[in-house]
Design brief:
globular, binds FE2/S2 (inorganic) cluster, alpha+beta, five-stranded mixed sheet, single chain, 2 domains, Ubiquitin-like (UB roll)
Length: about 170
């Protein structure tokens, strides 16, 4: 099996590595680089457990070859924390009991983060639509939707921030 040298920036850290031509990005992230927050479930683009952000778009990393990701910037669930502080989405999933076994959770959070970037105040239907590629085998969907609603509230700019922008 031939190998290829690729460059990958993951959560802001640059990596240069050799990958096999048939290697899936999900396995490179987990097995070679140690970003084990990205889970692998079905390996066939159904469950969404392996969802990561690739150059700003959420993709299922079991459907992307590592060589295809050469030169891209990837964000995994590990990249959500800043200064060891949980991201508001992570806080909300904890507070709203948006997980049971937790296997789907990293993928759910990546999809939620992508939704909230473009739709900061989503309604229930928009949340369900954004998460329809992510399956939860514990079927905790109700609390997952609540968690995303709560995250949206936490991430909304405060009145004082809005006031500052108005004055600029
Ligand atoms: S492991 Fe990638 S979609 Fe299920
Ligand atoms: S919390 Fe178990 S699969 Fe979703």
């Amino acid at each position: 099996m031939s190998t290829h040298k690729i460059e990958l920036t993951v959560n802001g850290t640059e990596h240069e590595l050799e990958v096999r031509s048939n290697e899936l990005l999900a396995h490179t992230l987990r097995d070679t680089l140690g970003y084990t927050g990205t889970n692998v479930g079905c390996e066939s683009s159904i469950c969404g457990a392996c969802s990561v952000s690739l150059n700003g778009d959420v993709v299922k990393s079991c459907t992307v070859l590592a060589v295809q990701a050469d030169g891209t910037a990837v964000r995994t669930v590990e990249g959500m924390c800043e200064d060891h502080e949980l991201h508001p989405i992570q806080q909300a999933f904890t507070e709203e009991h948006g997980l049971q076994c937790g296997y789907c959770t990293p993928g759910m959070m990546m999809s939620a983060a992508s939704l909230l970037e473009t739709t900061p105040d989503p309604d229930e239907a928009e949340i369900e639509h954004a998460l329809e590629g992510n399956l939860c085998r514990c079927t905790g969907y109700q609390n997952i939707v609540k968690a995303v609603q709560s995250a949206a509230e936490k991430m909304a700019p405060s009145e004082s921030t809005l006031e500052e922008h108005r004055e600029e």
